[in-house]
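Fold this complex.
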Amino acid sequence: MLWALSGSPLLGGLVVAYVVAWSALAIGAARGARWATVELGARAKLGLAIVALGAGALHGARAGTELAEVEGLDGLSNVLTDRLRLDATPAIAPAIVSADRPQVLWAFAPGARAVSLTLGPEARALDGLDAGHGLFRFAYDPRRDGPAPRGAFDAELTVDGTALRRTLTGARPLAHPRAITAADGLAATVSEETDELFVVDRTGALVRVTTGDAPTAAAIVGDHTIAVAHRHTRALSFVTWPSGQVTAEVPVRGPAVDVAARREDARREDDARPEDARAAAATGSGPVMIAVAIDGVAPGVELFARTATVITPRGFTHLPFAPSAIAWGPSDGTLVVASRATRALHRLTRGADGVWAEARRPIALGRPPIVLARSPDGHRVVTAISDYRPDGGPGPNHFVEDQLVVVDVERWRIVAHLPTALRDDDDVVIGGASPAAIALRSDGTARVALRGTGEVSVIDLSDGTVRATTRIEGLSRPSGVADLGGGVWLASCAADGALALVRGATTTVIRVSPDDAALDAETLAIRRGERAYLEATRSGVSCESCHPDAGDDRSLHDIGQAVPRPTLSTRGIARTAPYLRGASYARIGGLEHFAMVILGGWRTDDPGRVAALEAYVASLPPVDAEARLVAPDPARLRAGVDAFVRAGCDTCHAFPAFTDLAQYPVPFLFPERDELELVDTPSLFGVGASAPYLHDARAETLDAVLDDALRGGRHGDVARLTPDERRSLVALLEAL
Amino acid sequence: MSTPERSVPTPRDAPTRLAPSTLAAVAAVAALVITGAEAARAPIAITRELILSRGTGWSSLVLLAASLAITPLTRVSPDHARVLAPHRRTLGLASATLAAVHLAIVLATGLVPDVVLLVVEPQARAGTVAGVILVLLAVTSSGRVVRALALRPWRELHALTYAAALFALLHVALSPWPDVRLVAAAALIVGALLASRLVVRRR
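Structure:
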C-alpha cells in the first residue's frame, strides 16, 4: 500500500515500502503501541491483505508500462529469445537468408568435425568449411544451390551425422526498379533483387529482360542497345531493344556498381529523338565511351569503347577507394567518381600519356553521395547528400539536412547547396525530403525524385526554387527519374515495384511486381515497411537519410544519447536484440519512439507502421560485399579465426553472430574514455565495409582498430599476435 | 538470514555433524577457487574480469537458493530439521559475502564505472536491491537480534530473502549475455521454493 501511495515506478520501491512498514510495526510493538500489537481476527487480516495487495496491484497495473521501461523489462523476452537462439549450439547466423543474392552463413558447433547445412527442400546441402574453434563457414548462392523458402523455415544443420533443426527467415524480394537512365527516347532501369532489366519507350511499352546476377546499373549506348552492369556476374552485358536479346558480353574485373556512357551522337535531354541517334550512328560519329565503376577488393574504373560492331577494352584504372557512382565530365578525358566510402567526389583526368589519375583533391562532402547526375554537356554534376560537412569528416552536424550539391566539373568546386527539405520562417520543415534521383535538364533545372515524400519536383539549380511538384498516384516513394524527351518522363519506385510514365497531366503506372492487393500479408508488411523506412518525418529526415540503402552513412549522429555515435547498418540485424549503439531498444519497432520524439513524428498516421518497419528490417540480409563472398583460403581462414580467439575477440564478438548481444560500459573497454554510457556489442558481419570503427569512430580502418587495441590493451589483446597472425585477423574481419 | 520456521533453533543450539559455518565457508571458498581457476585460463584481462564477475554473482545466487531450500528440506525430512536448519543462516551469510565480492569486482574492473550506475542502470539496480536486502538480513541474523526482535517480526523481515532472490534473478536475466537456460533453471528453482513456501503458509 505504501508503495502505491509513494507512486514509485521502481520495483525496489516495493522493498523499501515493505521495510518501512515493518520498521513502523516493529518500533510500535517495541514501544507497546496498541495499533502495533493489536491481534487481528482472520477476516480483518484477510481484508487488510486484500486492501494492501489490491492497492499494490493497482499501482503496478497503472505504472506497468513505465515500470517495465524503467526496470529494463520492456522487450526482455525478445532479448532473451534472441540470446537463447545463439546460445543453443550448434547455432547459425545470420538469421536471414535472401533468395536474391549469394551470402555467407556461419555455424558454431563446438567440437564438431563436419557440419552441413540445407536451406529448405529446394536447396542442396552445403558443406561447411571448418574455420577452427567450432566455427564453420557456408557459402550459399541461390542461383547455384537452389532458393531458400520464404518466411520462417527450418534449416537442417547436420553435425557429425546428426540432423538438427534451426529456424531461419527466408526473404524473396520483389522487383525493385531504382535509378533510370534515358536516351534516344528510351528509359532503362534494373532490379538487382530480381535480376531484371526494364526498358520503357515513350509510349509506355515495357520490355522486360532477365539479366545476369544482380544488375546494378544500365546505360544506353546507342543503336537501341543498353549496357548492363552487374554486382555478381562479372560481365557487362549489351541488350538490344526491343528484342531483349543479349548481343554481347564483355568481362569486367569485379563487382560493377555503376556504368556511364559518353556519347556524341545523341543528346539525352528533352529533344533527343530515336531518329537522331540512328542518323548519327549511321554517319559513324565515333565510338561510345563506357566507364564501369568497379567495387570490391580491387576497386577501380574500367573503360570500354563501343562502335556498332566491336567493343574494345580501354584499360583499368585502380582506385584507392570504393566507387559508388560514375559520370563523364565535359570531355572523354574527365570522369567524376562518387564514393560513399570516402564521402567525397573524385575527379579523374586522362593525362597526355593516356594514364588516368586524380590530379585534383577530392571534393569532401562529409556525407555519402546518394546519387550522381550529369548535366547534358557534362560541365556540371549534381549529387544528393543527407547533410554537408566541409571538412569531409564523419563528425556530427547540428541536424540532418537533405540537399543537392551542384559541382562545376571544370573548376572542380561546389557552386550551390540546395536543401530539399523545405523549411518555413520558423525553421519547420514544410515539404520535401531526401532526394533519391536527379535528372538534369538543359534549361538549368533538375527533375528530382524526393523519395521521402512521394513527390517529383522540378528544381531550379541556380537558386533552389521549386518550379513544379508532381505527386504521382500509385508511386509512393520515387527512387528514379529520367526524361525521355518530347515532354515525357519516367519515374520509378523500388518500394512499390512500379514505374510511372508521365506525359503532361496523364500518368500511366507500369507495374513490374504485383500490386498491394495481390500480395500475401507477410510480403505486404515488408513492402509497407520499406515505404515507412523511406518516409520523411516532420523534421524532413527518414530512416533512409542516415541508412542509405538500409546500410550506414559512415557518419556520426547524436540521436538522443548526448554523445554522437557512428551509424550502424540495419542490414542483417534480424534477431540480434537489443538494437542501437546503446542497446536502447529491445525491438526494432521501438525505434518509432525515436522517430516520434527526436524527429518530430511522421507526417501521416499509420497504426500499422511499426509492425511493417519491423517486418522490413527483419527481411534485410547483410551487405553482400565481394570480400565476404570470395572463397577464402582454408588455412588463412583458420589462421584468422585462431588469431581472433587468441586475441580474445570472441569474448564479446561471440560465435556465430560475432556478437554476444551484450552491453559494456565504455571505460571497461576503453579506460581512457570517461563516459558512463553502455555500448552494445555490434555484430562484425559486414564490418569490412562499415568504417569508421569503434563507438566513437576513432578508427578509419580495421588496422587502426587493432592499433587502438594495442594502446588500450582491453579491446582485444592484439599485442600477443605475430604480424602474420594480425594480417590473418584483418583478412578474417574483411571476410565477415 | 532466511525465513525461520516456528521451531527455529538459533545457530548455537543446533547439534550438527559439520559446523554450518564450516560448510558455508567451504562452499564459498570452493566457488571462489573454481571461478578463479576458470578466470586464470582466460586469454585476456576483460575475459578474466567477466568470468570473475559472473562466477561470484552466480555463486552468490546458488548459495542463496541453497539457503532458501533448507526450509522445504526440513519439511521433507523432519528428522533432520535440527541438523539442517542452522545452515540457512550460514549459507545466506556466505551468499551475502560472495555478493559483496561480486560488487567489489564489478567496481574494481570498471564493469560498473561509477557507483551512480548501481542505482540508475536497471540491471545494476536490481543487483543493488538484492545486495542491500542480503546485507540487511545479514546484520539482523544474529541470535541477539533474533531475540531482541522477537520471533514473529524477525520472521516477517526475513521473508525478504525471497525478494532478494527475485531481484537477483532479475539481475542475471538483465545481465549482458546471460546463459538463458541457466537463468530459466534458476527461475524455476526459486519459483518452486517460493511456491512451496506459500503452500506451507496457507496450510
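DSSP finds 17 helices and 44 strands in chain A.
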